[in-house]
Amino acid sequence: MHKNIQEELTALVRRSLKAGKMDKFAGEEIALDFPTDERFGDFTTNIALKLSKELKSSPRQIALGLAELIEKEIRNSGLNGLIAQVKVEGAGFINFYLNADYFYAQLDRIISAGREALKQDLGKGRKVLVEFVSANPTGSLSVAHARQAAVGDCLANILEFLDFKVQREYYLNDEGNQINILGRSVQLRREELEGKRIEFPENYYQGDYIYDIARHAQKENIGEEQLGDFAAGYILKIIKGELADFKVNFDNWYSQKELAKSGKVERAFEQLREKGLLSERDGALWFNSTAFGDDKDRVIVKSDGSQTYLAPDIAYHQDKFNRGFDWLINLWGPDHHGYINRIRASIQAFGHPAEALSVIIVQLATIFRNGEPVQMSTRRGQYITLREVLDEVGSDAARFFFLMRRTSSHLDFDLEVAKKQSSENPVYYVQYAHARICSILRSVAVQGQGKADLSLLKEKEELNLIKKMLEFSAVLNICLVTRDPYMVTVYLQELSETFHKFYDLHRVLGQAEALTRARLALIEGVKIVLSCGLDLLGVSQPESM
User: Fold this and answer.
1) Of the four, 111, 135, 141, 314, which is 20 to 30 A from 84 by CA?
2) Cα separation values, 301 from 173, 271, 308, Å
3) What CATH superfamily classification does 425-537 receive?
4) Average pLDDT over residues 470-484
């Protein structure tokens, strides 16, 4: 069925290189892309431009010779009859023009198999642990955490769709100095509520929510020593509720406090010591991370006997592997960029390859209201929370907007745009395309009365719509390679735009019955892809709007 034509064309180019006695280049990365201009075929490769320097010849001359070899290979392969033409165009691009029958066959496959036709078994059951959000339970989730939640959950959805076995994990930092400060913050507010005059330190948690926790602590008569744990538990319930309303659910909530009690940190130290990777200097215990490319060794136990943040993190990551995962994906904020090498060094110290850990740095988001950025300060409690965003624009718009830029790029989130019910709002635009198709399909009785003759779809806009549908698998491949789901939002907007252009120019209903049936099949295919894409984003697929 030629399910993955890009892979087949890539293999075709490799065989042609070998046939032309250019074997040493057959291992080169060969990009088969969709041309930005539809006039230049259905797929294009720039391999001739890449080889020009090595072969000391013009890209066009290389492309012309390679195109001849490709055409010969086509005649001797199962691609004969699938590819209508191979042309060398521009500076030396080799462009492939496919026969319309290929597109009809792929559309028929999508209609017949539904979402199953869009799946790929790239993961082959590989076990992946995606750890994301992992915000300290000291306050409501901020928009920075919200963006991480959207990205992590969507990436996990895509990996599952590509046949990875995925678990979502939240690392709960429920012990240490920040929990102690949280407890003292609640104690001071409780004393204030009891009528005492207090001096509230600048570095304590100052949001109004601390008063709420203090009132509950009063009511339940919580002792001062238990206030930190009580406050963290209270806030954790809020965090879980916010995430549930954001359609983000975790398989595991991993407690740092329980990790410390388990003895796993000490056992990790013992293993490192046996490997000769710990040393004592200046009264402190050091992890010799420079042995694995870190820029300096790292202290894991200070001279006063207290552990650094790195100590439990080393044990935590080793425990992930011990639980059977062979690919770890961590989503961190930009302030953790310098932490990557030391964690990667730690997993290598235990014998795991560096590439077994992927760290995705999710840049911050700025919330705009009425054209003005909202100023934020987490410690002072002056920031827009995930709950506020959900209350204002809803989960669908929030998730879509948080995913609309590369994770490596800063995100501007305009609340006013996210609330609009017009084409200015990207999520509305995509959902409206889905709802519009559902409305058309509901209104006809011709569905199901025999198989549609898809060869009747000859208009440029019809073929463009099929071609755009078939880009979905390539988009998911990009998301896998880049560890970034944002391309799905771009693609869904493009697919919706291509559908609206088709619908504005060509009537679906009221045509000859055979053409109507073919066009109904066409938009049914679009509906399947739109629905699947929205589902991967965690966004609903309304059938009416």
Assistant:
1) 111
2) 18, 16, 6
3) Isoleucyl-tRNA Synthetase; Domain 1 (1.10.730.10)
4) 96
Whether 262 and 256 have beta carbons less than 8 Å apart is answered as no
Domain spans in the chain, listed from the N-terminal domain onward: 5-98, 177-245, 425-537
Looking at residues 282-292, what average pLDDT do you find? 96
At 141, the amino acid letter reads L
227-245 vs 177-193: helix crossing angle, rounded to 10: 100
pLDDT in the model for residue 228: 96
Note the pLDDT of residue 449. Answer: 57
CA angle, residues 464, 467, 470, in degrees to nearest 5: 155
pLDDT surpassing 60 at residue 380? no
* Percentage of residues of the chain with pLDDT beyond 90: 81
Among candidates 442, 428, 460, 431, which has minimal Cα distance to 509? 442
Distances (CA, A) of 472 to 36, 45, 70: 16, 19, 26
pTM over 0.90: yes
* Domain 5-98, classified CATH 3.30.1360.70, yes or no: yes
DSSP-derived letter for residue 21 is T
The partner residues of 130 in beta bridges, in order of sequence, read 168, 329
Hey, which of 50-54, 411-415, 509-513 has the most confident mean pLDDT?
Answer: 411-415
CA distance 91 to 80: 27
Contact criterion met (CB below 8 Å) for 183 and 205: no
